[in-house]
């Protein structure tokens, strides 16, 4: 009897019902799909991080350029004020009626 029971157990262990095989394959497919989705998500996260870094660096570059332009504009404004004052001094020194009107106009600006 022991021999017959061992035969029946061994045949049961070898025999896998078709329904169980389908479930096993389905689980493998789902796991494979999940792994592929995780890999895709990790890749897209990496791409987003790279893009974010590029945008950050571009933003810093824009800020630096903006600061340079701001300083240049300040210098040009100061130069403009200096030239206007020099022009007013020369016009006033001439002493004609037109120069007085011009100096008043320039002073109003």
Distance between the termini: 118 Å
SSE pattern: HHH
The shape, in one word, is rod-shaped
Q: Helical region count? A: 3
Question: Which class of secondary structure composition applies to the elements?
Answer: mainly alpha
Question: What's the mean pLDDT score?
Answer: 74
List the domain count as a whole number.
1
Helical proportion, percent range: over 70%
Description of the structure:
Residues 1-24 are annotated as: Disordered. There is one protein chain. This protein has 109 residues and is mainly α. The chain has one domain. The chain has helices at 2-14, 18-94, 97-108. The protein is rod-shaped, with a radius of gyration of 43 Å. Mean pLDDT is 74; it is low at 4-12.
């Amino acid at each position: 009897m022991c021999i017959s029971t061992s035969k029946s157990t061994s045949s049961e262990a070898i025999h896998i019902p078709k329904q169980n095989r389908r479930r096993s394959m389905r689980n493998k497919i789902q796991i494979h799909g999940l792994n592929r989705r995780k890999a895709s998500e990790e890749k897209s996260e990496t791409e987003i991080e790279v893009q974010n870094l590029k945008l950050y660096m571009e933003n810093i570059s824009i800020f630096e350029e903006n600061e340079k332009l701001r300083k240049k504009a300040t210098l040009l404004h100061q130069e403009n004020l200096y030239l206007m004052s020099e022009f007013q001094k020369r016009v006033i020194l001439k002493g004609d009626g037109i120069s007085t009107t011009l100096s008043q106009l320039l002073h109003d600006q």
